[in-house]
Amino acid sequence: PRPPARRLRAAWRVGRLRVALPSLATDLVAEVDGHLTSVPALDGLSNQQLLGVLRNAQPTLVALHAHEVLIGLLSSPGDGATTAAAVALNTLAHAQAEGLDADAVLEQYPGVLALVPPRVGAGPVLPEVPTLVTTLPSAEPDPAALAREALRLRARWVQELTARTAWELGQRLSALSLLPQPDAVRLLRHEELVALTLRRAAPADLHDRVVPSSAPLPASFRLDHQGRVVPDRVTASSSDGGTGAGGGRASGPVHHDADDLPDGAVLVVATLDPGLAAVLPRLAGLVAETGSPLSHLAILARELGVPTVVGHRDARRLLAPGAHAVVDGTTGRVELTGSPPDASTLAREACCS
Fold first, then answer.
1. Which member of 35, 107, 128, 319 has the greatest number of CB atoms within 10 A?
2. Contact between 132 and 281 (Cβ < 8 Å)
3. 10-residue block means of pLDDT along the chain (353 residues)?
4. Global confidence as pTM
5. Distance between CA 100 and CA 320 in Å, rounded?
6. In 3-state terms, what secondary structure has residue 167?
7. What interhelical angle do 190-199 and 47-70 show, nearest 10?
8. Is-contact 121 170, C-beta < 8 A?
9. Bridge partner list, 253
């Protein structure tokens, strides 16, 4: 009887944790809010205090992400809560309509940071968004879903705090000629930044370093024994779809460039970049070669009624720009109903015109 007894005890403990998680997350959110509001203006802090902000932010981020992962694994929050990104889209659209500049928007409505990824630099660049009115769900929001969104937003705020702190230190170190330019602070590990700030000990190879870049991850991959990314060719490529992430069914012309999108387009991308949130209201469909139905952008797309398919292998090769595609967010199928014009067709049209 021991194995069944152990399983029963484990299930009971997991059940208790599942019930307690929203309350635990609420307590953590309140604690983090208190810490964030207690941080004074960064330009008034000493170098040691700025390093302390970076040091204290690390365990806070770990706690926020750990609680978010637990809620996602154990509580299976549904779609009952409006996402922070949807609220941010509404807020930013109305603020821009009122003529507020980026600094004023960020000061009055910090929730808009959910729309942009963190970066160490002069400041976040807010996207231009169309007028948008999001309908709040009629059902009672799921406490677990609300808690998860609150945790995600606090994690983004802590990331913003650390990014601005690092930028402040970069400006100071650059003014002392300890860094060639403020951007070079991104080339330092945390312990190297501490050594440079407190002891003026710069890494010997600092001037030879460049900001690391990596190739996009394959749609399906595994790690070899050395931890390197290896494309996984076991599963055959599918030409008709991937995993449905919701949003219904719609069609439109295929586009690969998110910076030049007409309304009603089907955007086909490699990954679900958080920066795509601002263009979602204009899309007829979204197809990604990677990603999960539980990713933040997929949840937002589903909330906005944009049919979304994730995990569609070779989507950018199979779905050429200009083709007409039907995206089914329920089944995960993507069907082509038209092809882009070839070079001869374009030449004939140009000649006739």
1. 319
2. yes
3. 82 85 93 95 96 96 93 66 80 89 92 89 83 58 83 95 96 95 93 95 89 68 79 54 88 90 92 84 91 81 90 89 93 81 44 46
4. 0.77
5. 39
6. helix
7. 170
8. no
9. 324
